[in-house]
Amino acid sequence: MINIILPVDFGEKTDQLVDGAVKFAKEVNGKICLIHVAPTDIGFAIGDMGYQYFPEIEENEIREELVLLNKINQRILAQDVECEHILKQGIAKDIILEYSDLKSASYIVMGSHGRSGIYDVFVGSLTKGLTKDSKVPVLVLPIHE
């Protein structure tokens, strides 16, 4: 079976991205390997005493993200597409590429938000980074307005 890596960030366009990935998975008889990469600095806050770490904030955020990830997983399974999911913390590009290798993926499916130019200079683009460094094809779905 073809493994398709589907990174999600729970943004407003996640549903469109999932719909496109499900359609693609059905066309190629693929399995979706759903992944969310949480940042490593979730529990940190800055205040009067400088940076402080609050593990309970991180735990709550991770728990909420796992609930969201599970809902997407169930939604995909309900459409008769095989799916598994994982949440990891770290640098998104590196984690997604490692997961792609681990799963012997055939594709990575990403969304394009239609941003370009100066935005990429200052913020960077995960999709751009993945297309540059991935060993497998990256299918970029247009999910902008």
From TrEMBL:
Organism annotation: Chryseobacterium luquanense
Q: Which InterPro entries does the record associate with it?
A: Rossmann-like_a/b/a_fold, Universal_stress_UspA, UspA
Family under the similarity heading:
Belongs to the universal stress protein A family.
- By its UniProt entry, which SUPFAM superfamilies does this protein fall under? Adenine nucleotide alpha hydrolases-like
Full protein name? Universal stress protein
Sequence ranges assigned to domain UspA in this UniProt record: 3-142
